[in-house]
C-alpha cells in the first residue's frame, strides 16, 4: 500500500483543518518544501497537497508553492483544490506535477474528466470523493452535492476514471481512526482507492492493508507524531572504528601522522563490553601496499566478541570476502576497488547478499561538489560522490560508510551537508564517519540527517568520550539507542 | 552436541564461537550424509534465498531437514528457508512452516541493519527463558517471514510488525542474529541448546 503524506496549504504555509471546517484551522506554520523534504528523507515517494484556499474559492491560490515543492524535492505529487477547468488542470500537469485531484468539478462536469484522461492518461487524473454519512460533499466540504455515494461512483466509472481518493469527512482530522464499513462501500467497484481521512495510528494502516486499498493519505496523525513514517524501534548505532596497520590500531589526522592506539582484540573486547553496537576494522595500509587484510586477526576478534563487525581494506575478489566472512567477519567494507570496478559490488552482493557489503565512500569537497578519492585519499577520481552513492545502492551495496577527507581527524563535527545529501539520495543505511569531536556532534548527525549509525575512532580510543556516557546523553535527547 | 548446517555461504564461525563461549560442543556438517536426525541443529543463513536453496538441494539437506525430530533453530535466512516460499529470487523453500517470506516496503531503509526490539508474544516459550520482553537483538535483513499467528512467538516493528521469532513443533526460527546480539543473544542460544 502506498503511504501518502498530506500537506494542506493556506497562504504558502502548512495547515490542517478539522472536519473540513475553515474556522478550525490548525497552523503548523512550517515551510511546505521543508516538510516535503522531511517526508522524502523518510522514504516517501508520493505526497498529497491540497490548496485549501483554492478549494474554497474555486481557483488555484498556491500553485507556485506546489510547483516549488515538486521541483525542489523531485517527489511525485498529487494536488487539488480549486481545479475546475481543463486549463487549470493542464497548467498543473504540464508543470512537473504527477496528478491532479478533481473534486466538485468532476461531479458536475464528467466530460472534463473524460477529456483530461484522454489527453494525459488515467494515471494522471484522480477524483476525490468526500463523503459524510454516504452523501457526497463539495466546495471544500461546505456544501452537499445532492448525490449519494453510489450515484457519484457510477458517474465516475462512466468517465473512464481509474484512481479515486475517498475521504470520510466525519473522520478527517478527528484522530478517531478509520471506519472500514464506510470504506468498503467504495471498494470492489473497479477503482484503485486511496483512503484519506481518519488514518490515526499504525493499527489503521494495518486495517487498510488488509482491505487491500491502493494507498492511504495521512495528515494530522503524522504532524502530531501519532504515526511515524519509519515505524520502528531500530536503534541508532554507535561504532568505534579501528584502523589497523601491522596488527595494531592506529589513527592519523587526515591519513598522515599515524599514532598507535592499542591492540585491536583488547580494544574490541573493551568496546563490546562498554556498549558499542558494532565495530569496524579497516586495514588502512592494505590498499596502498596491495596487501590482504590479516585474516588471523579477524579470526581472533571473532573468538573474543559477539557483536557484529565489519572488516575492510584491500578487498578485491570474491575469495577475499569468502575468507573474511569465513574467519568471522559479518560484513566487508569495499573502498577503492568499488570505484575502480563497480561491477565487483554487484558480484559480491549476488554471492553473499547485500547485507554484508558495505561501501566506503571517501569524498572531498572540490568546487561545491563532493568528489571520490581512492588509494587512502591520495588520488582524485573526479567521480561525484552523490552519484557514486546512488550507483552503489543500485549495484547492491547494503550500507554506505560515508567518510569525509575534509573532516577526518579534525574533530569539528561530521559533514552534515554531505550526510544530508547522501541520505536523501539512497534508501540503504548510512554510517556517518569522519570529524566527530564531541557528544553534540553525534546528536547533530542523528537529528539533522537520516544516518543510521555514527562512527568515531581516536575519540573513543583515547577515552575522550566514553560510550556509556555518550549513549546516556543521546537517550536523554530522545535518540533511540540500545542500552 | 549441536550440529551446525553448512551450505557454503554462511558465517558459521560466529555461531561456533558463541557456542564455544557457552561451553557447548558443536560440529559443522556440510552434507546430508553427516546429518543426524536426533541431534539438535542450528541452521545459520547468510546470502540469498535462491542460491541457498540450490545448495541445500545439491547437498541433500532440503529433503533431510524436514525429517529432523529434535529442536532445530534457523537463524536469519535459515529461518526464512523454513517457510513455503520466498519473494527473494521467487524461491520455493523447505515448506516446514506455513507462510511466505516478503520484502520490506520502501518506507523503511532496506536492508534493516541494526539493533531492534523483540516483543514476546509467547513469553512462556522456553526460548525466551530469563530474557526480558523488549530486549534488543541484532538484525540484518531485507525480507521477513509472514507465518500463521500461532507460529509467531516474537514480533518486531520495522515499517511493519513482523514475526522475528517463530516456532512450530520442534522447529524454531529467529530473524535476528543471536550469535551477534551480545549477552542477551548468548542467553537465547543457551536456552535453545539447554531448555528447548
Describe the structure.
The complex is a heterodimer of chains A (483) and B (196). With 483 residues, chain A is of the alpha/beta class. Chain A has two domains: 2-223, Aldolase class I (TIM Barrel), CATH 3.20.20.70; 237-476, Aldolase class I (TIM Barrel). Chain A is 36% helix and 28% strand. In chain A, the strands form three sheets. Chain A has an eight-stranded parallel barrel, surrounded by five helices. Chain A has an eight-stranded parallel barrel with strand order 13-16-17-18-19-23-24-25, surrounded by six helices. In chain A, helix 11 (264-273) packs parallel to helix 13. Chain A is elongated. With 196 residues, chain B is an alpha/beta fold. Helices cover 21% and strands 35% of the residues of chain B. Chain B is built from five helices and 13 strands. Chain B has helices at 12-21, 49-58, 61-64, 77-80, 182-194, and strands at residues 2-5, 26-29, 41-45, 72-76, 85-86, 91-92, 99-103, 112-120, 135-141, 143-147, 152-158, 160-168, 171-174. In chain B, strand 12 and strand 13 form a beta hairpin. At the A-B interface, helix 13 and helix 16 of A face helix 1, strand 8, strand 9, strand 11 and helix 5 of B.
Amino acid at each position: 500500500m502506498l503511504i501518502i503524506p498530506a500537506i494542506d496549504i493556506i497562504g504558502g504555509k502548512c495547515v490542517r483543518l478539522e472536519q473540513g471546517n475553515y474556522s478550525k484551522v490548525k497552523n503548523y506554520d512550517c515551510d511546505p518544501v521543508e516538510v516535503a523534504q522531511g517526508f522524502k528523507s523518510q522514504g516517501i515517494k508520493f505526497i498529497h497537497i491540497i490548496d485549501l484556499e483554492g478549494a474554497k474559492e474555486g481557483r488555484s491560490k498556491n500553485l507556485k508553492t506546489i510547483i516549488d515543492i515538486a521541483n525542489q524535492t523531485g517527489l511525485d505529487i498529487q494536488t487539488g483544490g480549486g481545479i475546475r477547468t481543463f486549463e487549470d488542470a493542464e497548467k498543473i500537469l504540464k508543470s512537473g506535477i504527477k496528478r491532479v485531484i478533481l473534486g466538485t468539478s468532476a461531479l458536475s462536469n464528467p466530460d472534463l474528466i473524460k477529456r483530461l484522461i484522454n489527453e494525459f492518461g488515467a494515471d494522471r487524473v484522480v477524483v476525490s470523493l468526500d463523503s459524510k454519512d454516504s452523501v457526497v460533499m463539495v466546495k471544500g466540504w461546505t456544501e452537499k452535492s445532492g448525490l449519494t455515494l453510489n450515484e457519484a461512483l457510477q458517474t465516475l466509472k462512466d468517465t473512464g476514471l481509474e484512481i479515486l481518493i475517498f475521504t470520510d469527512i466525519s473522520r478527517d482530522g478527528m484522530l478517531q481512526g478509520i471506519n472500514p464499513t464506510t470504506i468498503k462501500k467504495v471498494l470492489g467497484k473497479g477503482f484503485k482507492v486511496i483512503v484519506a481521512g481518519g488514518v490515526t495510528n499504525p493499527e489503521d494502516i494495518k486495517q487498510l492493508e488488509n482491505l487491500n486499498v491502493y494507498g492511504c493519505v495521512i495528515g494530522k496523525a503524522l504532524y502530531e507524531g501519532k504515526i511515524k513514517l519509519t515505524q520502528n524501534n531500530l536503534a541508532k548505532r554507535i561504532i568505534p572504528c579501528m584502523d589497523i596497520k601491522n596488527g595494531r590500531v592506529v589513527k592519523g589526522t587526515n591519513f598522515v601522522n599515524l599514532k598507535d592506539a592499542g591492540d585491536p582484540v583488547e580494544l574490541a573486547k573493551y568496546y563490546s563490553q562498554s556498549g558499542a553496537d558494532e565495530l569496524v576494522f579497516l586495514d588502512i595500509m592494505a590498499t596502498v601496499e596491495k596487501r590482504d587484510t590479516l585474516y588471523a586477526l579477524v579470526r581472533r576478534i571473532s573468538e573474543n566478541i559477539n557483536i557484529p563487525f565489519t572488516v575492510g581494506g584491500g578487498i578485491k575478489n570474491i575469495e577475499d570476502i569468502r575468507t573474511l566472512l569465513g574467519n568471522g567477519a559479518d560484513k566487508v567494507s569495499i573502498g577503492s576497488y568499488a570505484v575502480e570496478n563497480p561491477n565487483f559490488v554487484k558480484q559480491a552482493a549476488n554471492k553473499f547478499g547485500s547485507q554484508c557489503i558495505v561501501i566506503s565512500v571517501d569524498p572531498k569537497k572540490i568546487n561545491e561538489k563532493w568528489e571520490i578519492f581512492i588509494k587512502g585519499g591520495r588520488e582524485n577520481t573526479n567521480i561525484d560522490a552523490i552519484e557514486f552513492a546512488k550507483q552503489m545502492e543500485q549495484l547492491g551495496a547494503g550500507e554506505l560508510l560515508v567518510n569525509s577527507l575534509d573532516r577526518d581527524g579534525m574533530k569539528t563535527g561530521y559533514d552534515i551537508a554531505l550526510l544530508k545529501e547522501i541520505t536523501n539520495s539512497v534508501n540503504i543505511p548510512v554510517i556517518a564517519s569522519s570529524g566527530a569531536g564531541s557528544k553534540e556532534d553525534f546528536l547533530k548527525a542523528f537529528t539533522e540527517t537520516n544516518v543510521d549509525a555514527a562512527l568515531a575512532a581516536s575519540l573513543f580510543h583515547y577515552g575522550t568520550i566514553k560510550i556509556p556516557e555518550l549513549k546516556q546523553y543521546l537517550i536523554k535527547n530522545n535518540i533511540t539507542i540500545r542500552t | 552436541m549441536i550440529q551446525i548446517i553448512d551450505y557454503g555461504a554462511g558465517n558459521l564461525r560466529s555461531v561456533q564461537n558463541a557456542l564455544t563461549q557457552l561451553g557447548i560442543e558443536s560440529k559443522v556438517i556440510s552434507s546430508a550424509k553427516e546429518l543426524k536426525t536426533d541431534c539438535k541443529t542450528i541452521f545459520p543463513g547468510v546470502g540469498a534465498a535462491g542460491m541457498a536453496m540450490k545448495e541445500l538441494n545439491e547437498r541433500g539437506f532440503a529433503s533431510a531437514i524436514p525429517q529432523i525430530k529434535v529442536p532445530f533453530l534457523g537463524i536469519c535466512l535459515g529461518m526464512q528457508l523454513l517457510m513455503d516460499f520466498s519473494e527473494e529470487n521467487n524461491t520455493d523453500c523447505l515448506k516446514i512452516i506455513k507462510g511466505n517470506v516478503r520484502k520490506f516496503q520502501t518506507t523503511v531503509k532496506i536492508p534493516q541493519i541494526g539493533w531492534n526490539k523483540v516483543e514476546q508474544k509467547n513469553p512462556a516459550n522456553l526460548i525466551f527463558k530469563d530474557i526480558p520482553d523488549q530486549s534488543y537483538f541484532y538484525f540484518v535483513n531485507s525480507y521477513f517471514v509472514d507465518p500463521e499467528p500461532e507460529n509467531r512467538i516474537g514480533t518486531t516493528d520495522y515499517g511493519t510488525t513482523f514475526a522475528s521469532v517463530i516456532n512450530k513443533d520442534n522447529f524454531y526460527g529467529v530473524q535476528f542474529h543471536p550469535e551477534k546480539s551480545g549477552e542477551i543473544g548468548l542467553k537465547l542460544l543457551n536456552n535453545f541448546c539447554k531448555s528447548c
